Amino acid sequence: MYTLPIEAFKSIETPFYYYDMDLLRDTLNIYNSHLNKHNYVAHYAVKANAEKPIMDEIRKAGFGVDCVSGNEVKLAIKYGFSPDKIVYAGVGKSDKEIKAALKAGIYAFNCESVEEIKVIGELAKSMGKVAHISIRVNPDIDAHTHKYISTGKKEDKFGISPWMFEDVLNVIQTSNHLELIGLHFHIGSQITELGVFKTLCQRVEDLQKWFLDRDVLVESLDLGGGLGVDYVDPVGNPIAKFDEYFDIISKNLIVRPGQSVHFEPGRAIVAQCGTLISRVLYVKKGKGIKFAILDAGMNDLIRPALYHAHHKIDNLTSTGRKLRYDVVGPVCESSDFWDKKIVLPETNRGDLIAIRSAGAYGQVMGMRYNQRDLAKAYYSDDLKK
Ligand SMILES: *Cc1c(COP(=O)(O)O)cnc(C)c1O
Questions:
Q1: CA 43 / ligand 1 centre spacing (Å)
Q2: How far apart are alpha carbons 222 and 85 in whole angstroms?
Q3: Which of 76, 184, 241, 274 could form a disulfide with 110 if both were Cys (CB 3.0 to 4.6 A apart)?
Q4: Which of 148, 264, 307 to mutate to test the pocket of ligand 1 (most atoms within 8 A of CB)?
Q5: What separation, in Å, do the N-terminal and C-terminal C-alpha atoms of the chain show?
Q6: Where does residue 317 rank: exposed (0-12), middle (13-18), buried (19+ CB within 10 A)?
Q7: pLDDT for 164-180, tens place per residue?
Q8: Ligand 1, atom nearest to 110 Cα
Q9: 79 CA to middle of ligand 1, Å?
Q10: Domains present along the chain, CATH in parentheses
């Protein structure tokens, strides 16, 4: 259904990112239908992909944003997102970043330590403002995902553990410049065992009760992001399991009158609409294996090298007999490989290769290592014209 315009690709210099904007819009529409059904609110996680055309679609779909740096807050405002729909997390917010966010009047600081809350209080006081605080809770839940993208276990650096709540509440309640508005959770990324979200809902209720016992009803419950996508069969499953996800949440999360429920999806919105397109430079004969050497490398998409991530590789221009290849990049690092011993139709110099599911944590992590150029982006809306 969401096919790649291979003819148009033939005249474009590789490597480049291609974004299917119809898939992005369909994903946003389906996500929105769930939000509307339950009266939930979404804040797109900017760090997944910050390209302007992508962010424009997401803004038009009515989403707010979830930022993890001052520059993301700045960028979101520049791209037209309303500050009162911005939430801002991160374990290491600098004074400069906090002041800029206070000045902009964001919806919530998702705070990750009592030390940070104290600093926000002091800075808000010096500016004559009141900061909205949401406590990012570390609920000690194993999200069953790669250890580098797990964020909700007690040994992870993120969030505030429940044993600190007494202190946190005291700091907030004794300041005239801090207002507690919510509880925030984000337990990890690429979560595919959706039962984890049921556990999360149960933990949210346990923790809410702790606050209710102290006569505090928080206005906002923010469940973060983390829903995984299908990296193995992206063409067969271009849209994440939103039905199952929202079914689990709506059946298990207890919401009280006056409370709003927020989500911060990143990957599940943008991963599948992006593809990294590359050409084969050489097919090199090795001992018992052939290397297909691509012109796209780890500097264009670092996920395989950084967290052993798998991306499906397709040869778009060959229909030859099936052979086995190690598919590698050109960068001078042994970790710069795409996949090993995979079956592709007979591959030759000049063939176009698609590296699928590259829309999230792809282009945005691009770097110039080896002095390589940054890959450009092309959008389906423009290529069709
Ligand atoms: C990265 C991040 C997200 C988005 O996570 P996905 O797995 O891409 O949905 C949401 N909230 C916070 C606080 C994050 O750091």
A1: 10
A2: 13
A3: 184
A4: 264
A5: 19
A6: middle
A7: 999 999 999 999 999 99
A8: 13
A9: 20
A10: 7-12+272-383 (2.40.37.10), 21-271 (3.20.20.10)
